[in-house]
Amino acid sequence: MNRFVEEVRRTPGGANVLNCLLCGSCTACCPVNEIDDGYNPRKIMRMILLDMEDDVLLSDEIWKCNQCHACVSHCPQDVRFADIVRALRDLAIERGYRDKDLLQKVKELDEELKRKRLEAVQAELEKKKPVSGKTAEGNL
Known about the structure:
57% of the residues lie in helices and 0% in strands. The protein has 140 residues and is mainly alpha-helical. The protein has 2 domains: 3-97, Alpha-helical ferredoxin (Fumarate Reductase Iron-sulfur Protein, Chain B, domain 2), CATH 1.10.1060; 100-128.
């Protein structure tokens, strides 16, 4: 086994990296891949398994994952790609490939986008209140 795979395995979230068969289920269900053809979780996994540490940890791709966990729910081997991405980000910061503040900025952006989405959905729901006076809660 190569050194980088072993380091990923020892990093919290990376334990299942060797379960990957490179089937591509993660990429097929990824919402980031739907809007960015260049984003390919399978390619990232292949690079890990081929001991391409610098290429992986310097890659912008590990920062594009939005942590939706669709890949986790679709993976037949329980690789837990979203968890591996978090492990890779931690390694990239720990080893000086990226500035420490990037991780915090990405987390803040993710939280801001979740809040904005929820607010936008709530605003749309308010516009379209049922006219009959019935509510979903009242029908329970």
